[in-house]
Amino acid sequence: MPEDSVDRAKLRYHGDVDARPGMLDFAVNVQGAAPPGWLRQRLAAQLGALGRYPSAEDADAARRAVGARHRRAPDEVLLLAGAAEGFAMLPRLAPRLAAVLHPSFTEPELALRDAGVPVTRVLLPPPYLLDSAVVPVEADLVVLGNPTNPTSVLHPADAIRALRRPGRTIVVDEAFADAVAGEPESLAADAAPDLLVLRSLTKTWALAGLRCGYFLGDPALLARLERGRGHWPLGTLQLEAITATADEAAVIEAERRAEAVAAARAAMIERLTEIDVHVYTPAEGPFLLLHVADGELLRKHLADQGIAVRRADTFPGLGPNHLRVAVRDGPEVDRLVDAIRSAGL
């Protein structure tokens, strides 16, 4: 689409804007209000080390831990100060044309456009399933989410592999992959030279305030992304969090959490469907995309009831009657359902 018709304010919009302090938060997809106790203890134990710079040994240990977790070599891991830093690096690949599949997280498109990279939007129609044939053959960079925010669609790994072309790099945003039990469609272990997989620790481990993530990919690609980066890009606490959450016990805990999310999601779909809210399925992420009769009015009504939901019209391909809600447990869903009923829309 023409550059002057792009609404950058919408691309910059994120769900935390919808959730004011004290509200019941369905707008942000972070699980829990704080990291689990064992992780807080690991981080607290490092507070005494903050008087020194993060060491190369600490960074190497984090890379080794992530590599072991995904069956990758340490030099196939690029540690990041959150997934957003990874998106900001994409222009360093110098693509001639980037194709961004939508509806999806808008940060990659914004980063590419702000750097002057030509971008084409590939809008998938409902039910938002991937079709490799709709991606322009001339695109030498393709960016998509899996599972996709906000549609909660989990694309088959083979459908993503079908996007591969000579001279093309594929970037898969797997920020929510560890919230899918078994991670059946993850490409994190695929050591392909043209594939970059982005992971975030924000969601499952409630680390939004610490900014932790990583890229997995070919060392040559990672070197291009990292070129020009400053010294000490990650702090001591970030390195500790990355190392800790890659541990085998943490991976097992994340799987248990993903199973709980799946059960809560199924129950939530049933509850919302019972009150005639359209929920897009199949849904495999820790959030759901809804379509309602009057989204802006309902969102305001819910806010008046102390409930925050994510407006979804900021995602390309969606409109004001689309809303995104995080998967939550029974009592919280009860409040949401009662508040929607009370709107009388």
Write the layout of secondary structure elements.
Elements: H1 8-12, E1 24-25, H2 37-44, H3 56-70, E2 77-80, H4 83-89, E3 98-102, H5 107-114, E4 119-123, E5 141-145, H6 157-161, E6 169-173, E7 195-200, H7 202-205, E8 213-217, H8 219-226, H9 236-245, H10 248-274, E9 278-279, E10 287-291, H11 295-304, E11 307-308, E12 310-311, E13 322-326, H12 330-343
Parallel strand pairs: 1-11, 3-4, 3-5, 5-6, 6-7
Antiparallel strand pairs: 2-8, 7-8, 9-10, 10-13, 12-13
Structural class: alpha/beta
Shape: globular
Quaternary structure: single chain
- How confident is the prediction overall: mean pLDDT? 96
User: What is the overall number of helices?
Assistant: 12
Radius of gyration: 20 Å
Helix coverage percent of residues?
25-40%
Q: Low-confidence parts, pLDDT < 50 over ≥5 residues?
A: none
Q: Could you describe the largest sheet, including whether it forms a barrel?
A: 7 strands, mixed
Total strands: the figure is: 13
Strand percentage, roughly? Answer: 15-25%
**How far is the first residue's CA from the last residue's CA?**
35 Å
Q: Give, in order, the helices and strands.
A: HEHHEHEHEEHEEHEHHHEEHEEEH
Sheet with most strands: strand arrangement:
2-8-7-6-5-3-4
